[in-house]
Amino acid sequence: MISADPPGDEMTNILSRLPVEALMQFRSVCKSWCNLIRDPHFVNMHMNQHSSFRESGYLMGKDIILDFTEIKECKDIILDVAEIKECCTLYSDETFAEHKKMEFPLWESTKSFEIIGCCNGVIFLLYPFNSSIL
Amino acid sequence: MASSSSSSKTGLKKMLTLKSSDGDEFELEESIVIQCQTIKHMVEDGFSLIPLQNVDTKTLTKIIEYMKKHAEKTESNKEEIKNFNKEFVKGSFDDQFELVSAANYLHINGLMDLLCQSIADRINNKSVRAVREIFNISNDYTPDEEEKVRDEHKWAHEGGEFDESLD
């Protein structure tokens, strides 16, 4: 049997293969898992695990999300209340399959952006604020 | 090294005996067993009877099945190996935990990768409660502490339906 609490080698290996969403959820399992998941060594291990699977890259495109959250509050009105939010979508650069839609935290509609670079899953975007002057 | 290559040319394959914690012995060709780093080191030290005190017969049988299949690996049977791997990880969680523990002790890297990834895939969408049950973990948070930990990453707990099943 493997040691799960506190997590031994095998358990640590298994957890390092989970996506971030699951790890953030599993911090609630017990204190030793919570400590492991925020441990810098584990974070590194997790990053290495995931970057070794993804040799290919992503394409990024502008897109929209229809936000239907308001429908729940007003049952009589249908669809019209859906708010259109602009977002960006990541596509696999091999299959062009949609990977994830992401909302921009600081979106200003109609403005374009430049991708400056990315590192460990963090994407650096630049909005050319004074593009009208240039 | 020179002796093992010349013996295989003449058809005399070097045999090794693995002994499980239940005392059962399994005779295997050295070329199959050296996928396992722990045993490889023992062979290099001159052992030919290898006692595995942490691995019971049931688990060792499965591990041998894996090593035999993977020793046959070539460019042309990739699909066959893939199907074999798929079947291999189908057992209960407890069986998989026994196997992963043995794979770790024996340092069979390919098997370790296969098992850890398959267990990770199986628990990925489980609820926190199901995960505690599966790994036999007792919740050591007070209700207040648990609430606080959940609140720190609330978004991770709102991802729709979580799987409560234990298999």
UniProtKB/TrEMBL annotation, chain A:
InterPro entries: F-box-like_dom_sf (IPR036047), F-box_dom (IPR001810), SCF_F-box_component (IPR050796). Residues 11-42 form the F-box domain. It comes from the Eukaryota. This is F-box domain-containing protein. The lineage of its organism: Eukaryota, Viridiplantae, Streptophyta, Embryophyta, Tracheophyta.
Automatic annotation (TrEMBL), chain B:
Residues 147-160 have a biased composition (Basic and acidic residues). Residues 143-167 are annotated as: Disordered. Pathway: Protein modification; protein ubiquitination. Residues 110-156 form the SKP1 component dimerisation domain. SMART domains: Skp1 (SM00512). It holds the Pfam family Skp1. Residues 14-71 form the SKP1 component POZ domain. Keywords: Ubl conjugation pathway. InterPro entries: SKP1, SKP1-like, SKP1-like_dim_sf, SKP1/BTB/POZ_sf, Skp1_comp_dimer, Skp1_comp_POZ. One of its GO terms (biological process) is protein ubiquitination. Belongs to the SKP1 family. Part of a SCF (SKP1-cullin-F-box) protein ligase complex. Involved in ubiquitination and subsequent proteasomal degradation of target proteins. Together with CUL1, RBX1 and a F-box protein, it forms a SCF E3 ubiquitin ligase complex. The functional specificity of this complex depends on the type of F-box protein. In the SCF complex, it serves as an adapter that links the F-box protein to CUL1. This is SKP1-like protein. The lineage of its organism: Eukaryota, Viridiplantae, Streptophyta, Embryophyta, Tracheophyta.
